[in-house]
Amino acid sequence: MRTNAGRERDFRQERQHLLDALAVLLVSGCDIATFNVALNSSQICKALSPKDSRGEVIPGEEVTPSRICRALDLFENYGIIEPYMRRLDPYTKTYLPRHVTLTEQFFKLLQVNLDLLFKEREERLRALAEGILAPGEVMSVKAARQRFFDEKVAQALKVRRERAIEQKRLSRIARSTQLDDRQFQIAAWLINTRPEVSGMTPDDFELLVYHYLRQIKLNFDAEPPG
């Protein structure tokens, strides 16, 4: 691969360390569904720069955006990332891309089990299609499915609680003996709990009140208005 890229000698140790660290950084931020990696120049430079005992970047030893660009150019020449569009970053004055796409060769160099990799990729694509995962979200499919099911359970419990509260309120209204009093209480309850009724016509609102009267069997004999 090195020969195909037009290079015969190994890299200097300093550059080799940078390439190794950059490869680890890319794979850690890779979206398995697309093999895309979003890039942020300042974050990458900070992550790859040498740091002191306090975790601060050592002055004068910072990894610059231009070094990252040259490293990505090498990765592209070696075929371990897809050719990427070069756009000038007005802040860093470099052509650091916003994202790169890793190739199968990249994962081969890391000795990744490709069968398992592509199996996981298919699972993530299926999870994306089902709405269980959001594009670019860094989370295992198993964890995403558990979150999805937990959300569904929480939604079901919320609906159940709301229905119980509604039934309790309507049952209390049912104890009223006067039809007008029941209608007034239901109308007041709808106005306080259902913001959407403010846009209804008087006739539609009256029909909604009647619907609730019928629903809890308070007034079977009354005729609907209109």
Question: How many domains is the backbone divided into?
Answer: 2
Backbone structural class: mainly alpha
Q: Uncertain regions: pLDDT < 50 for 5+ in a row?
A: 218-224
Shape: elongated
What does this structure look like?
With 226 residues, the protein is mainly alpha-helical. It has two domains: 13-139; 159-215, no CATH class. It is built from eight helices and three strands. The protein has helices spanning 13-28, 41-48, 65-77, 104-109, 114-129, 141-174, 179-193, 202-215, and strands spanning 30-31, 36-38, 99-101. It has a three-stranded antiparallel sheet. A hairpin with a 4-residue loop joins strand 1 and strand 2 (36-38). The radius of gyration is 31 Å and the shape is elongated. This is Replication initiation protein. Keywords: DNA replication.
Task: Give descriptors for this structure.
single chain; 2 domains; mainly alpha; 54% helix; elongated; Replication initiation protein; 8 helices; Plasmid_replication_init_RepA; 226 residues; DNA replication
SSE topology sketch:
Elements (H helix, E strand, L loop, with lengths): L12 H16 L1 E2 L4 E3 L2 H8 L16 H13 L21 E3 L2 H6 L4 H16 L11 H34 L4 H15 L8 H14 L11
Antiparallel strand pairs: 1-2, 2-3
Helix pairs in contact: 7-8
Kindly summarize this structure in a few lines:
With 226 residues, this protein is mainly α.
